[in-house]
Structures are given as structure tokens and as C-alpha cells.
């Protein structure tokens, strides 16, 4: 089986624990206003690669990954769930730590056949980096052009399965840098029983260059990058919501 791959990176340090080999898949159904990889949006493009070819590239620099492993990201890798299953199954056969970076947008709890695929995928997945874009559905539509129902369902599904998760949340002035929504996000995360880490990331402007090269209007050109201090403030609000919810559930 072949997957559509945008690119690979042999020394990833922000894509899961340790140093990692990172595979960027091609294709994404979201159109996040702050996306810094618009070149990964189009489906059915990119370089076709097999799982064996990816693992061969991994092996070329595997000495770096003793405390790390393999991460697949995007784009949205779960658009190619069959390929990810095959890749992770073969990676686990080689005792490679596997990490999936996803928004969970393709999850559908009413699709039995798809759920079976998700169950199979989890059996070969060590860690999931789950991108929670916005807790409010209306604002999620504004920010990402898609609803958040399936994403939140996916988070609950992972909790029920006790699948280890790192939550990621980008804070953007005028969109997610809002005390009410940050606190509500914390209340939601507080319901989950599988969260191992929380990364709150300040919005940056590094994607502007790609938009210019692609001839695409940059939607947040009037929004300034957020400071690290503000990201810390946002994280504190989320943590307050988490603590309140956990106290309530005791």
C-alpha cells in the first residue's frame, strides 16, 4: 500500500517524546486560519511512498531515536487511515515507538466499519497528539471551517480506550485567547481520563511566507503573534478548568 506523503523530517523535537522521525502526510479537510502548512491541504497529491520505504528512511538515522521514535502528522494523517495502520503495524514489529498527530476530524462514532479501523490503529499506537482547536462549535466553524463534534467524540473515545494523549491547543488573539472558552476547554479536558500532557502554543506568523509563495491570501495578516507569557496565562486558565471538573467528578 502507498500513502501520499508531503515530506519527512529526520530530527523532529516537538512531535512527541525524544528525537523523532516525522512523516508529513498530504491532504487535510480543515482550513484552520492559523495553519502554517497550506501546502499540505490538497488531497491526492504528494509523493507516493510505501510503509517499507518510510521505515527504510527511518533506519538510516535510527541511532538518533533511542528515546524517540516515529511520528506521523500532516495535513491530516487519518484521511489515509489504512496506510497509517500498515505503517504503525510494521513499525511496532520493529519495536519503534509510534505517535499519531491528529485533529481526529475523520472520526465517526456511528460508522461501525470505521470504528473497527480506529480500534486496530490504536493497537499499534503508543501516543496520540490531539489538536483541540476550539471548544465552542460555532467558533470552531469560524476558525477551521468544519464543526468540532467528531473531534470531541474522538477525544472521549480515546479516553474510554485509555489511550495516552497529549493535548495541543493554539491560542490566537480574537479567537481562542478568551478566558471563557479556555476555561470551558479545561472543563472538557477534565472529563478525560487519559491526558498525559497539555501543550498550549502561542500563535506565530511563520506561515505567511508559504501563503505568499502559493499566492494565497493570509487570513490572519492583521493578527499579531501571541507572546509566550500569554500562552502561559492561557494554560493556567485551562488548568483551572481541569482541576474544577476533576474535583466535581470525585
Distance between the termini: 47 Å
Q: What is the number of helical segments per DSSP (H or I, 4+ residues)?
A: 8
Could you state the order of secondary-structure elements as H and E? EEEHEHEHEHHEHEHH
The assigned structural class equals alpha/beta
Give me the side-by-side strand order of the main sheet: 3-1-2-4-5-6-7-8
DSSP helix fraction: 25-40%
From the alpha carbons, calculate the radius of gyration and give it in angstroms: 18 Å
Quote the average pLDDT: 96
Oligomeric grouping of the chains: single chain
Q: Describe the main β-sheet briefly.
A: 8 strands, mixed
Judging from the principal axes of the Cα atoms, what is the shape?
A: globular
How many strands in all? 8
Low-pLDDT ranges? none
Strand content: 15-25%
Amino acid at each position: 500500500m502507498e500513502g501520499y506523503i508531503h515530506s519527512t523530517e529526520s530530527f523532529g523535537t516537538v512531535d512527541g517524546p525524544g528525537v523523532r522521525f516525522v512523516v508529513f502526510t498530504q491532504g487535510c479537510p480543515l482550513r484552520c486560519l492559523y495553519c502554517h502548512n497550506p501546502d499540505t491541504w490538497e488531497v491526492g497529491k504528494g509523493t507516493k511512498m510505501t510503509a517499507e520505504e518510510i521505515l527504510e528512511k527511518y533506519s538510516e538515522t535510527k541511532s538518533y531515536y533511542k528515546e524517540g521514535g516515529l511520528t506521523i502528522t500532516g495535513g491530516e494523517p487519518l484521511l489515509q487511515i489504512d496506510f497509517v495502520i500498515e505503517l504503525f503495524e510494521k513499525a511496532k514489529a520493529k519495536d519503534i515507538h509510534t505517535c499519531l498527530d491528529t485533529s481526529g476530524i475523520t472520526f465517526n462514532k456511528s460508522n461501525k466499519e470505521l470504528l473497527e479501523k480506529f480500534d486496530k490503529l490504536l493497537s499499534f499506537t503508543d501516543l496520540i497528539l490531539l489538536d483541540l482547536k476550539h471548544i465552542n462549535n460555532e467558533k470552531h466553524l469560524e476558525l477551521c471551517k468544519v464543526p468540532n463534534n467528531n473531534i470531541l467524540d474522538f477525544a472521549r473515545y480515546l479516553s474510554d480506550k485509555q489511550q495516552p494523549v497529549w493535548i495541543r491547543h493554539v491560542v490566537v488573539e480574537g479567537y481562542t485567547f478568551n478566558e471563557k472558552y479556555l476555561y470551558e476547554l479545561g472543563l472538557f479536558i477534565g472529563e478525560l481520563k487519559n491526558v498525559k500532557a497539555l501543550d498550549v502554543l502561542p500563535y506565530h506568523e511563520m506561515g505567511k511566507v508559504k501563503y505568499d509563495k502559493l499566492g494565497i491570501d493570509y487570513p490572519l495578516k492583521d493578527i499579531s503573534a501571541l507572546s509566550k507569557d500569554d500562552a502561559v496565562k492561557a494554560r493556567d486558565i485551562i488548568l483551572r478548568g481541569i482541576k474544577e471538573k476533576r474535583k466535581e467528578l470525585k
